[in-house]
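Hi, can you check this record?
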Amino acid sequence: MKGLDTIHKRKSATITAILMMMLLLCIFFFGLKYMDPPIESGIAVNFGTSNVGSGNIQPLEPVKTEVNPKVVEEVVEEVEQDTSADATLAEDVVTQESEESIRIKKEQAVKRKAAEAERKRKELERKKAEEQAKKAKEAREKEEKALKEAQRKKAEAAEKARQERALQDQLEAEQAVRQQRRSKQVLTEVQKYQALIHQAIQRQLIVDNSMKGKSCQLNVRLASSGLVIQVKELGGDPILCRAAKSAVFKAGTLPVSKEADVYEKLRDINLTVEPEL
């Protein structure tokens, strides 16, 4: 349709149709109400009960009609009988209606109680299920929190151990560098004091030409002050060894370092004595 060629026109037509239907429903349910006519008492019309009331001549004065007493009594009796029968029937109907309504009310009350009990039972089950779900959720959250905390502590401990290992490795590397450097220094110091000890022994050594080209190995034990404690011959020319041993004791005190690590290398030292000729 050309009139509904755009989405806005189609929406407008839909909204208009819905509004019209709502308006018609409002008029149908609330606007048009049927009013029953009021009950009228009516007009008594007497068509006559005798020949007086028949004919084409209208009387000028009201015609008095005689009432038959027997007919009146019969009518009254019939009316009374009808009234008593109607009353009896009405009482029976009312009684039946009362018993039926009481039974229905009792059934409705029982149903309401059963429905209320069922509603309470379902409500109790719902609350119990919600409470259990809440407790399960709290327990699960507590377990997850504990697991995360344990993982965090484990990660922290692993990181701390890694840092400590790295620090220990660094300290060991630095210590190794220092020890290596110190070892070189100690070796240099030991070599220096060995040379000084050789010079001290050479100054006290008495030699002759017969010792030329000969050597003697000695083991000398020194105190921390350099005092000679013990001298042993390890091998070599006997004459030169006696002269070298005598020179060591004659020196008495040999030069040693005051540093403990250097002294440790000199306290029990092996020397080779060769005469300088």
